[in-house]
Every structure is written in C-alpha cells, then in structure tokens.
Amino acid sequence: MEITAFCVRFGEGSSLWVRTSKFARFLPVCYQGWDQSYADHTCAQLGFRKSFATKAIQSNESIGLTVTQRPSLPIQDCGQQKSSSRIIGGTVAKIGRWPWQVSLHFRSTHVCGGVLIAPDFVVTAAHCFPSLLDLVVSQWKVYAGVVSQVKLPQPYLVKKILLNTNFNNNTKDADIALLKLSSPVVFDDKAQPACLPIFNQQFNEGTTCWTTGFGTTVAGTYTASNDLMEVNVNIIDTQECNKPHIYGGAVTKSMLCAGDLKGGKDSCQGDSGGPLVCMQDNRWYLVGITSWGDGCGEKNKPGVYTKITSVLPWIASSMQQERP
Fold it and tell me: What are 125-139's pLDDT values in tens digits?
C-alpha cells in the first residue's frame, strides 16, 4: 500500500486513518499486525525521519483497515515547552518557551520568522520570497533555539525553498512556504518542533493563543527587535473579521484572524512567517503563520494568519517528496 499525503491523515488522538480506493473514504488502521517499523515507514512517507511513539487506542469505529504487507502518545514528539517580526504590546520571551520559533536571515539580516515542524523542515510565509533572487538558497540562514539576535549560534543552511503554487501575492491567499534544511536541527531544550493540527482540529472563536517573533515593536518602523517577543491573542471569528469596518471580505477560507479588536496587541513587520500557536491537550499546535494585516495593533485591524488546517495536504505532500 503506497501511503501518500492525500490518502493518509491523523484523526483524534493522533489515530492513523487511510483513504480506501474502493469507497474513497477514510478508515482507521487496525493495530493488529502493526509494529514500530510500520510507524517509522508511515512517518518517513510523510517527510519525517521516523516516528516518536506508536500504540493502540480505543476507537468507536466498527470498520477498519488491516495491515497486509509492508511497502495516547502522538506518533510525532512535538509541541512541548522545555521551560516555562511583528509583535506589538508583548513581552520578551525566555529561552525554551517557544522552541519552534526560528529566525530566517537573508544576507545576514533577519527578515522573517519560521516554525520548526520536523528536524529537516521549517514552515514560513510565501511572501517572504517576493522575487526570484529571494529563492537563491545560498543567501539564507536559519537560526534555531534563539531568543536574541545578539551572538547567534551556528546557522542551519537551506537546501530547498518550496512555495505553495496557489499563493496569491495580491490577496495573500495560501501564504505558505516550506524550507528543506541541508542538515537536521538537533532538538534540545532550546529547539523543538510545534505540532501540526489534525485535519479537522478546531480552534474556536475566543481561544487564547500566542504569537511570537523578532519583528518591530513600534508600529511604523522597520527595525527588527533584538529579542524574541511574545504576545497572547484571541482567535476572531472569520465572519466578524470580514465585516466592512474590519477587513471587508478580504479574509479567505485559508486565513484566520487573531488579536484584539480594541487594538494594542498584534504581530508586525518582521514577524511574517512566524507562528500562531494554541494549546490543546497539553501540547502546542501550529494554528497559523503570520501573514498580513493593516498596520500593527490598530483598532479593528487584527493580525491575519495562514490557516494551517487549510494547507495540511500541501505541507505533507511537499515533505513527502523532499523527505530525507
């Protein structure tokens, strides 16, 4: 059975579901006959190096798929803090608090944020690469596990830059890119991946989440912050965000809004590509990628983020094609 990004997905409790060719529906995979090597193979097919853990879970489904031949801990270890460029109204983050945050440097200057989702892969915003020159991998360096732009460690180099082909630079629809690193990030207390949400995971209106970045802390300026900044923001209903006095219909199905309609707390220039993360079940999930907004921290102009659940198939298929 060939497992691809479009026929495999993770359901509630990180349960593995596979789409059947006969009925074109997703069904859970039976644990009978399953072992660690299958888990490793599945994760490798999705672009990860290996699985973190695999075990049986309780399921109410009466129909399932059984393993016939070769080709509640999550299968991927992620979203855990090892310690307890667009941030307005935030505070300085402590080392290890947001270990998936990375700083992307173009020609030795911080220009965008990014998010570790696997040892070899970083997600960021497609609009961080506005020209063909910006796609030259030798011009980029990735710094992981840092909370300061002063005395940076050795960087990770970029092997390939993948832009979502559906990205619209005018509307910022599908504003997502994937960086394949030349060597894997060594995970430790300072650097850890964020969890990708499952296909139907919900983060409802009013959910308190966090956004981080090295972007400017003063609206109207373009000087990046030396320190990683953090601020909590609330998910805003898309229908509310599309009202005429807010964004007037500019927020598409592949976007979500987060912030404070009263103003004062937001991401800003230089935070693009960084994370919007929300906690569920004691793990931090990557819900959005910082994309756009009118101003920074202004009333009725919250931040707009690429909605990760809308681009999960693209992320998985891209990682699969570029897997180690």
Answer: 999 999 988 999 999
